[in-house]
Design a protein that fits this description.
The complex is a heterotrimer of chains A (about 300), B (about 325) and C (about 80).
Chain A: E1 7-11, E2 15-19, H1 26-42, E3 47-52, E4 56-61, H2 68-81, E5 90-101, H3 104-112, H4 124-131, H5 137-146, E6 149-154, E7 161-165, E8 189-193, E9 196-199, E10 209-214, E11 240-245, H6 248-260, E12 267-272, H7 274-278, H8 281-293
Parallel strand pairs in A: 5-11
Antiparallel strand pairs in A: 1-2, 2-4, 3-4, 5-10, 5-12, 6-7, 6-11, 7-9, 8-9, 8-10
Chain B: E1 2-6, E2 12-14, H1 34-44, E3 52-56, E4 61-64, E5 68-76, E6 79-81, E7 84-85, E8 92-94, E9 99-102, E10 107-115, E11 119-120, E12 149-152, E13 177-184, H2 193-201, E14 204-210, E15 214-218, E16 239-244, E17 249-251, E18 259-261, E19 268-271, E20 273-277, H3 279-285, E21 293-298, H4 301-324
Parallel strand pairs in B: 13-21
Antiparallel strand pairs in B: 1-4, 1-12, 2-3, 3-10, 4-9, 5-8, 5-10, 6-7, 6-9, 11-12, 13-20, 14-15, 14-21, 15-18, 16-19, 17-18, 17-20
Helix pairs in contact in B: 1-4
Chain C: E1 2-5, E2 10-13, E3 29-30, E4 35-41, E5 44-49, E6 54-59, E7 65-67, E8 72-76
Antiparallel strand pairs in C: 1-8, 2-4, 2-7, 3-6, 4-5, 6-8
Classes of the chains: A alpha+beta (about 300), B alpha+beta (about 325), C mainly beta (about 80).
């Protein structure tokens, strides 16, 4: 990873922003994960927030307790200590996430904002399928649901998972964001922008392409559901989500369970090493799908 | 109890913020002007971190159903008790049955009303601050409405004598043009050298889109260095691979209108950030109103830390003044 | 004569939306509580209301103009 040109920068007097790479890759995301994990374990005084993101990370600190330059020195040491990712273990969960593609609610929002889209004549999913070289949107949905996604960052609003698919680079889907952001996105909308899929936790503004709707919440401020007992947000960085194409019937059934407060994600605790993924993403994906649904 | 007769434009319960949950996408919230907030609590005799009311642009009308000690600081929205003017930046007694109201805003945009004992609302994720976007914290997760009743808590530390007031040197002045210090950095390498210059030269105008999430500013278009976009970033030259946004960071979506993020910030996203407002001046940007002017001044880390120490020193002095009065 | 002042700094609008007629014209009779315009601030709209009954003598601010808090937008007699 010697080709990474890491940028260390002050974010005012309370933040350090570290950009490990301008490009997204699984490798750089694992590096950010590893550094921030080690930093957390050090329990340094004056550190307020540690925020790993996709190809970068950010630390908020109290400069009355730790000088920013002292912190940067520490971060540089941590960066070199995780250079080959050898001793890095990621505590993860494999999670089944049911998605209803081209649902009526998302479709209504798609049609409402055609004037802000690159291709007003198509729907978002038709456009995305075409520019990624798929013959049909059915093939495109298969590509999304065929391999799982790594939760590479949480942010924007509480609980929003940025997810990067575990496939070789040449198979990665990439789409532009809307030309002008929308003022409305349905709650639980399954979106895609740049190289990332997301689930919008709450309704609101947004700029990602809209493909469907997750049946299950990622945010529950009442903490009614069993998966939300410890936190109002469900996703954690390092989780592996499999988006599964479901019928309207299954969607409705899951929604009823959510409404009743009984729904629990199908999930398995799982640990892995970055190298397990990097040496053969395809084999890793097949293995985790087997683990999630069979073992 | 305090009864809300009129809510004002946007009056919310705030404190020193919800720290430690940024990685889950949860911004800190809390008082935008932390200096005025802290002084209000000191004058009311409260412990550090007590919850106050943040008043925006237009004051509420509040009926006190019990005697109380209060202090009002921040932007100049002149307070009145039963129609009679009362001073800001001073410890004031209010009696049961009195009505606290406010005149038209004179300077600044946000005022802080501290009540001895603090506003008593449930602590959610270590804070009483309101985050309205998700309806978390504060009074039912929202701004006050007519008919609400607020309880007073028990986080009073000292009994501050009525009439205790601060000398001018501790009272910030807010005008209609605001010099805001920033540290250039983050993804500023994305801007052309010329645009970086223009960013600092221009006098920006605050647009109507200016709230606790962020301030959108109008000026002129800025340019990004042309490049083949990195993988995963999206196609617009202002796009980067989605990253974390510091509080106070400034992004320029599509190069059109810079947005400075405040306490209810979105915690991350895919726009290049180019500078960050220093902590001391985060207290000032939130006092700028729509149509007022903002000029960004580039400072070094050392200057930012010095300004911060200066603010800390002032708060320490105020504490001593109040204790010895 | 009574003055009606804007309670807020912002943009003054005389109509509920661009397609609709103005709230009041000069010479119109109004009752206390009647809306005479809107102030846009922080992406929200606040109504400016008459506090007394009377006849609108003059409208002092143009549609879409920026006003200060406390600025007189209309006179009533």
């Amino acid at each position: 990873m010697s080709d990474l040109k890491t940028r260390y920068s002050y974010g005012g007097d309370e933040f350090i922003f570290v950009e490990l790479s301008e490009d997204m890759s699984l490798e750089v995301n694992f590096q950010a994960m590893a550094i921030t994990k080690k930093l957390r374990e050090k329990n340094m005084p004056g550190i307020l927030d540690i925020c790993p993101s996709n190809a970068s990370y950010m630390v908020r600190f109290n400069p009355d307790q730790i000088h920013p330059d002292e912190l940067i020195d520490e971060l540089k040491k941590l960066e070199s200590s995780v250079e080959n990712l050898d001793d890095v273990v990621i505590n993860s969960r494999l999670v089944d996430v049911p998605v209803l593609f081209e649902d009526p609610w998302t479709h209504e929002a798609v049609m409402q904002f055609r004037d802000r889209h690159q291709d007003p004549e198509s729907t978002d999913i038709e456009y995305a399928a075409r520019i990624n070289g798929y013959e049909s949107k059915e093939d495109f949905i298969k590509a999304i649901t065929g391999s799982p996604f790594l939760v590479s960052m949480i942010g924007f609003v509480p609980g929003l998972p940025f997810c990067f698919q575990v496939v070789p680079r040449e198979e990665q889907i990439e789409v532009p964001k809307y030309v002008r952001p929308r003022t409305f996105t349905p709650e639980r909308c399954f979106g895609f922008g740049g190289g990332f899929s997301v689930i919008y936790p709450v309704q609101g503004a947004g700029g990602y392409q809209m493909f469907g709707i997750a049946a299950t919440p990622v945010f529950d401020k009442e903490q009614k559901l069993p998966d939300f007992q410890d936190s109002i947000v469900f996703p954690r960085q390092g989780d592996i989500f499999r988006y599964r194409d479901v019928t309207r019937e299954e969607y409705d059934a899951v929604r009823a369970e959510v409404e009743a407060g009984t729904f629990e994600y199908r999930k398995k605790d799982f640990t892995f090493r970055p190298d397990d993924v990097l040496k053969d993403p395809r084999a890793f994906s097949d293995m985790v799908l087997g683990r999630l649904y069979n073992d | 109890m305090i009864k809300v007769l009129k809510p004002g434009l946007q009056t919310t319960v705030q404190d020193d913020g919800r720290v430690g949950f940024y990685e889950t996408g949860m911004p800190p919230s809390g008082a935008v002007d932390q200096y005025s907030y802290a002084v209000a609590n000191l004058l009311a005799g409260n412990k550090k971190g007590a919850a106050v009311l943040e008043i925006t642009y237009m004051g509420p009308e509040l009926e006190f159903q019990q005697d109380a000690t209060i202090a009002i600081t921040g932007g100049n929205i002149p307070p009145k008790i039963n129609g009679e003017a009362v001073p800001m930046w001073e410890t004031v007694k209010i009696n049961r049955g009195d009505v606290l109201s406010f005149d038209f805003v004179k300077q600044g945009a946000r005022s802080y009303l501290a009540i001895a004992g603090g506003i008593d609302v449930p602590v959610i994720m270590d804070s009483r601050s309101t985050y309205t976007l998700c309806g978390i914290g504060g009074f039912n997760g929202r701004a006050l409405q007519e008919g609400d009743a607020l309880s007073i808590g028990d986080v009073q530390e000292t009994d501050v004598k009525e009439g205790t007031r601060l000398t001018e040197e501790y009272v910030p002045e807010f005008s209609t043009s605001h010099e805001i210090r920033v540290i250039i950095g983050l993804c500023s390498y994305r801007l052309t050298e010329e645009s970086k210059q223009r960013f600092l030269e221009l006098e920006w105008t605050v647009t109507p889109e200016a709230n606790r999430v962020g301030y959108r500013l109008k000026g002129e278009r800025l340019d990004f260095v042309p490049r083949e976009q990195p993988f995963g970033a999206g196609s617009n030259p202002s796009n980067v691979v989605d990253l974390g946004y510091p509080i106070g960071s400034i992004q320029i979506p599509d190069g059109v209108e810079p947005i400075a993020l405040l306490n209810d910030a979105v915690t991350g996203g895919g726009y290049a950030t180019v500078a960050t407002i220093i902590s001391t001046d985060l207290n000032r940007i939130g006092q700028a109103k729509t149509n007022e002017k903002v000029k960004f001044v580039s400072v070094s880390l050392e200057e930012a830390l010095k300004a911060r120490q200066e603010t800390n020193r002032k708060l320490e002095e105020i504490k001593n003044i109040i204790q010895s009065s | 004569m009574k003055e009606i002042a804007s309670p807020l700094p912002g943009v003054f609008y005389r109509r509920p939306d661009p397609e609709k007629p103005v709230y009041v014209e000069e010479g119109h009779e109004v009752k206390a509580g009647d809306t005479i315009g809107l102030i846009e601030v922080m992406k929200s709209f606040q109504e400016v209301k008459a506090e007394d009954d009377g006849v609108i003598k003059s409208i002092k601010v143009e549609d879409g103009a920026v006003v200060e808090a406390g600025q007189v937008v209309a006179e009533l007699e």
